[in-house]
Design brief:
binds flavin mononucleotide, Beta-Lactamase, 45% helix, 239 residues, 9 helices, 5 strands
Length: 239
């Protein structure tokens, strides 16, 4: 049921975005199927990678978001090898459909050492996309300076993606037509109207409470065979 609705929303939103892109004389990359080697960036494909809900995509970055570690599932889904990811900014998997304002909110939280559950559409090396829901933990040194961020991501539930996709298309269109500030004000207005803050809004989209959200990110038995050593680090940090 949701997949048909999502498809329709995608079609409508794609038309709107293509119209805006055309107005701004930007070429849409949707439906291309090769890597743009000249510009060394990935061309997007309108094909989703379905994640295994029992698995977690993990990464660790320095304070600025430069990747220092990624687990096996990260590499399996993104299609990158370790040597291609290490030392790269996390935006290597940034999908162009993602509104900038979501990353603004994300970084405001991370810089305060706070967790944030965000829906993120990520871009795999082959151009396909995958939706995740995030969970973060920040580490400090003895001087109280941020040294690293740990991210865990789970498959974003399908019914939530339908709502999120609609919102993100709107935010992205506002950013393209106006700017990020205007998109931010729109988002704030939406939350005010719903009398919610960012966190309660995310919970309401998912239809769960805080406790259920927390348990969503507690490891069951994922990655047990391949990442015993790695799991102990992440297990300790995120439980
Ligand atoms: C630990 C950590 C994990 C992140 N994970 C992602 C991710 O999965 N996808 C993504 O697009 N950005 C992720 N980011 C945010 C990126 O650093 C970056 O802000 C974002 O891709 C937007 O890039 P841009 O500001 O260059 O457009 C992550 C940041 C941190 C610190």
């Amino acid at each position: 049921m949701y997949s048909t609705e999502r498809k329709n929303t995608q079609e409508t939103a794609k038309k709107t975005i293509n119209k805006i892109l055309a107005e701004h004389q930007i070429t849409s990359t949707t439906n291309s199927d090769s890597l743009d080697k000249q510009h060394n960036r990935v061309i997007t494909l309108d094909k989703e990678i379905n994640l295994d809900p029992s698995k977690t995509i993990m990464s660790k970055t320095d304070a600025r978001g430069v990747i220092e570690y990624a687990n096996d599932y990260f590499m399996e889904i993104s299609g990158y090898e370790e040597y291609e990811l290490m030392g790269q900014p996390h935006s290597i998997i940034r999908h162009p459909d993602m509104p900038q304002v979501i990353f603004k909110v994300l970084w405001e939280r991370l810089n305060e050492g706070k967790n944030i559950h965000a829906f993120v559409k990520n871009l795999a090396k082959d151009g396909r996309y995958y939706w995740v829901l995030t969970n973060f933990e920040t580490k400090y040194n003895e001087e109280g300076i941020i040294t690293s961020h740990y991210a865990r991501r789970k498959a974003a539930p399908n019914n939530a993606i339908y709502t999120v996709e609609k919102l993100y298309k709107t935010l992205k269109a506002i950013e393209l037509k106006q700017d990020m500030k205007t998109a931010e004000n729109y988002f704030k207005g939406l939350l005010e109207e719903k009398q919610m803050n960012y966190d309660s809004f995310i919970l309401s989209i998912l239809g769960i409470d805080e406790q259920t959200m927390a348990s969503y990110f507690i490891d069951q038995k994922e990655n047990t065979q391949t990442t015993t050593k790695k799991r102990s680090v992440f297990g300790r940090l995120f439980k």
